[in-house]
Predict the structure of Exocyst component Exo84 C-terminal domain-containing protein.
Amino acid sequence: MESSEEEDDFPSIESVTPQSKIDTIYQSKTEKGIRKLCFELLDLKDAVENLCGNARAKYLAFLRLSEEVVEMEHELNELRKHISAQGILVQDLMTGVCHELDEWNRGDGEIQEAQEEPKHCDLEDPLSNEAEDRRANCLENIDVLLAEHKVEEAIEAIDAEERACPELRGSVDMSDDGMPSHKSDFQKRKAMLGDQLVHITEQPSVGITELRKAVSGLLKLGKGPLAHQLLLKACGSRLQRSILAFLPLCPCYPETYPSTLSNLVFSTISSTTKEIDSIFGDNPVYSNRVVQWAEWEIESLVRLVKENAAASETVFALRAASICVQASLNHCSVLESQGLKLSKLLLVLLQPYVEEVLELNFRRARREVLDFAGTDESLQLSPRFASPLSTFATSSNSVLVDGGMRFISIVKDIVEQLTPLVILHFGGNILTRISQLFDKYVDTLIKALPGPSEDDSLTEPKDTVPFRAETDSQQLALLGAAFTIAEELLPMVVSRIWSVLNESKEAASGLTDNIMPPTSNTIEFKDWRRHLQHSWDKLKDHFCRQYVLNFIYSRDGKTRLDVQIYLNGEGEDLIWDSDPLPSLPFQALFGKLQQLATVAGDVLLGREKIQKVLLARLTETVVMWLSDEHDFWGVLEDDSASLQPLGLQQLILDMHFTVEIARFAGYPSRIVHQIASAIIARAIRTFSARGIDPQSALPEDEWFVDTAKVAISKLLMGASGSDTSEIDDEHITIHDEIISDSEGSPSSLSSIDSFESFASADMAELESPVYTDPEA
């Protein structure tokens, strides 16, 4: 009762299905689904097996059908041959019937004459009839063989008949009355066989075996020249078909297609030469014709490489030409073992094309190198090449550094396209072009320096230069970049060329004359480096010349080294007392060199050699200008000029002071000493001519040397008191005017550190033969 009451209270409990029943119901449904899926998979398996069986059966049927088609084609060809043979037989029968009718007609007219002949004519030799029958059978056999195109058997039949009847060769007089007719018929069959052989050689699809048999057959028929010509023609046609099939792929392989073309051409030449040697033997006539044919094919190769190459001014064209030379010369060296020496001919044919590509590539390089305003974001240089130039990179020198990197990148790109044999034969030409390209680059840098150029070839106005090196630091960076390119980077880039040329010299004994470069192509490394040195010397001399001229001449065109300093022993620039000093312009020169050395120490850090070379050349330029200044010596040597011993002493002291600057700074002073000695000697002669005795008027030489050294020490130490108090305001004005346009000017001339910046290097560093002054 309680349970019934509970069921009334909770009627929803009746709808609850036990879990076991749920599991049973769904388990049975899952099993049914799996079984159904299995049956479907089995049906699918049967369908797939049926499909595979049908496909296999159809494939086998297709193969059988293909075989039947091939058999049908073969039977069709045989049927064509049979029809052709029957046609020839019918034609021969018709010809024979007509011939018999003609003979019968002629026979009716000769019956009477035959009856009147002697009786012994009726007793003809039966052997004559047998010979005619044999000849007829031979011609008939040859006709059948020709109709069936059995050329080999026909050749054997003709050869056997000629051996049996030597008269057919025309070498023996024919005594048989029937022989002329038989020979004529025989020659006709022989000509027909020759035509068939010629037809075989002219077929585009003829195989090499069939071609060889046909050529050999023509040779047996006595047509050797024709057989040789047809063999060369067939091989050439085969080569042309291979080339035409490859030409559409040339744009896909812009660098390697010349090698493929070269392989096609020279492999054909090699195989053809072997075939001719095996068929014709060692006959000089045939060998000469092979060489002529090979020359024509090589000319075609060069033309194809040129026609399918990229634009001649691109590195792709240079790479294509290099690969063509490399591959072709390698093939020529292999052909020499077969008696064909084609290397010289190949170089004669390729030289104009290679030189044209080189010329256009270097023209392009010249345009890109001189285009300092252009930017090339794709410019990539390894740190090995970029780091030396990066030391000069500043915000004001970015155009200069980019131009130098572009120059090295372009030259490096050109050199990387060259193959060893191209370097061997054209290396000297390429090195000369590289040095000429550096000349153009230096000419552009000269235009970037201030001051007029004295080089007649540099006629282009300065406003075309995209950058100007106005400050000392910019000018020194320009010189340093050019020096780095000439001294370090260019030799590094072309080292691959020199290594190949040196290896060729060492291995010259093992090379044949055909692959040795001409003597006109050789160039010595030291000569090439000397050319680069002269180009850089031109840039250095222009810098020193304009730098010294800016120092000597004021903005209004007046010279600071005025001859009045040395006249009458008076002048505002002359300081002469108990403690004499050089004249103010030479004191200013010392300050100018000191200030420039400070800037050079920062810009050309780690390049003490170039610092000393530049400072030495600047000092030389000053004394050279004074030695050659006509206005200066014209006034001094004028008879109206009033000369006093004090002026001569001051001039000699200034020269000794200049020499001591070079000595104490540690750079070469020999040239400065020579020029200064010449100036002193000329001055002494001038003063002596005016009655001044140098022996009594001048102190000893040691006094001038010691005074110059003391003056340098005073200027460096900045001595106070009476030693410098007499250097008036004009001295300060001159010095300020000289250094006002330079960067980083020192506060005074008393800085020892600034002097040591260009005096600390060892003199031995300047004894190197590389980039020293040519006059030294």
